Amino acid sequence: MPLSASDWLRIDFRNGQSVSGRLRWRARQRVGITLSYPLDDVTQWLAAATREAGDGDGDGLRPRAPRFACSCPADLFVYDRRFDVVVRNLSQGGAGLVAAITLPVGTAIRLALPGLAASLPARIRWSRDGELGVAFDTLLGFDTLAAWLDDPALRYARA
C-alpha cells in the first residue's frame, strides 16, 4: 500500500524505542515526517539496546548506525595482501563480512567495495567463526551508502 501525505507512521528502532508522526512528503524512496513530539536527546533514540560501561560518555549507551543486509563480493587489504570477502551487512560506520581469514581485533585494514571509488580504511572490531566485523575510520556518507544500496549495478561492479 503506497503512503500518502498525512498518513500516520510509527518508526520502531532496534533499541526497542519508537516514535510516531505524520508523513509530510516523499520523494525517491525518502520521506519527511513531522513527529508527534520533539526528540530532546537524539542519541537516546540512536543508541543500541545494549549498554556498555567505560565508553567515555557517562551513560553507557553505544550509538549504532542501522545495518543494511546485502550479499556482495569485496576485497579486504591487510598491508599489501588482498583477501576475498563477502559483505553481509553495511552501515555508515562499518560492515559485517564473511571471510576465510581470522584477524586480531584492532588490525588496520582497507575494504574495497565494488562501485565505490576509494577503499575504506577500517579496523577489525571482532573476528569469529569465519566472520569479521569492521569499523570504518570515517563514517561512510549517507548519500553514498544509500546510492550503493539502491543500485545493484554498483554493488556488483568489479574493477
Secondary-structure map with pairings?
Blueprint: E1 8-12, E2 18-27, E3 30-35, H1 42-46, E4 47-51, E5 61-63, E6 68-78, E7 81-90, E8 94-99, E9 108-112, E10 120-128, E11 131-136, H2 142-150, H3 152-155
Antiparallel strand pairs: 1-2, 2-3, 4-5, 6-7, 6-9, 7-8, 8-11, 9-10, 10-11
Structure commentary:
- It is a single chain.
- With 159 residues, the protein is mainly β.
- The protein has 3 helices and 11 strands, in the order E-E-E-H-E-E-E-E-E-E-E-E-H-H.
- The protein has helices at residues 42-46, 142-150, 152-155; strands at residues 8-12, 18-27, 30-35, 47-51, 61-63, 68-78, 81-90, 94-99, 108-112, 120-128, 131-136.
- The strands form 3 sheets. It has a 6-stranded antiparallel barrel. It has a 3-stranded antiparallel β-sheet with strand order 1-2-3, with no helix packed on it. The protein has a two-stranded antiparallel ribbon with strand order 4-5.
- Strand 1 and strand 2 (18-27) form a beta hairpin.
- The protein starts with 7 loop residues before the first strand and ends with a helix.
- Residues 49-58 have low confidence and may be disordered.
**Average of the residue pLDDT scores:** 82
**Helical run tally:** 3
Run of helices and strands = EEEHEEEEEEEEHH
Beta-strand fraction estimate: over 45%
In terms of structural class, how would the helical and strand content be classed? mainly beta
Largest sheet: 6 strands, antiparallel, barrel
C-alpha termini separation: 39 Å
Strand arrangement, largest sheet?
6-7-8-11-10-9
Query: Are there runs of 5+ residues with pLDDT below 50, and where?
Result: 49-58
Whole-number radius of gyration? 18 Å
